[in-house]
Amino acid sequence: MRFDYVVLECVASDYSCFDSVVGKFHLYDLRVTVLLGEEHLSINFYLTEFYDDWGHTFFHDSEGYERAALFPRQKILELLHFHPRVTPYKEQIEKQLGKEGCFPYQPIEEESLIEYDFVKFFRKCKKIAAKFKVNYKILTFEELGYTSYNAVRLDFENGPIYILCNNYRVTFVKNKNSAWGGELDGYPLNFIDHEHLAREFSGNYRVYTVAELNEPFNKDEFVLDDFNKYSVDHWKPKKVGDFLFNYWD
Predict the structure, then answer these.
(1) Tens digits of per-residue pLDDT, 31-44?
(2) Are 97 and 90 in contact (CB under 8 A)?
(3) Are 177 and 65 contained in the same domain?
(4) Nearest Cα to Cα of residue 10 among 87, 112, 98
(5) What is the pLDDT of residues 172-196, one digit of tens each?
(6) Would 108 be classed as within a structural domain?
(7) Residue span of the structural domain in which 176 resides
């Protein structure tokens, strides 16, 4: 797969920090900004005299969203260790710490790639809102709490409809209680079918109907990571919708 990006800027900083255990120490930070397609993305690499390797954040876009799906971790390591504009800064910081050559490149043998990019879902919903000529609102983490999905509200004349997306799996929700002052009015969610909205999602997206979401949940029909295995055993979802669009913490 072709993966082309351009490094736009590298900024190295040195911060004096204090920890109750180790006392005063220096934190070296290397901020790298790249252009990937039309996206401006920034990442921070960091190192102290106590670390046994470089640490790093995920890439963030210009709006502050974390975009882990756009840049695999293997590519992040290659950026730090091999890019002609970035690696000299890395080597200079290691020299200042007296740790030249102490952090060789180590390829990742197996990497679980993050494929779902929620920002693309937000942008799609924005286009849908423009097409239907309605206002929209992206629900924040504070408004949603710890959920398995992202959500966008579309303000139709006959009441808001929420588009929920969990890893490209989409459904539509309408509040049952019109007097509710918040956003989504609690569980179980009131799933609805919406033929016109469903037509807007294609490609990687999969729209679930109410009938599908009301089917009995069978964990053997889904690929579960360790967290979801534990959560399924703990919360015991009865329906497919309970599993896909949940609020487990």
Answers:
(1) 999 999 999 999 99
(2) no
(3) no
(4) 87
(5) 999 876 544 567 867 789 999 999 9
(6) no
(7) 118-244
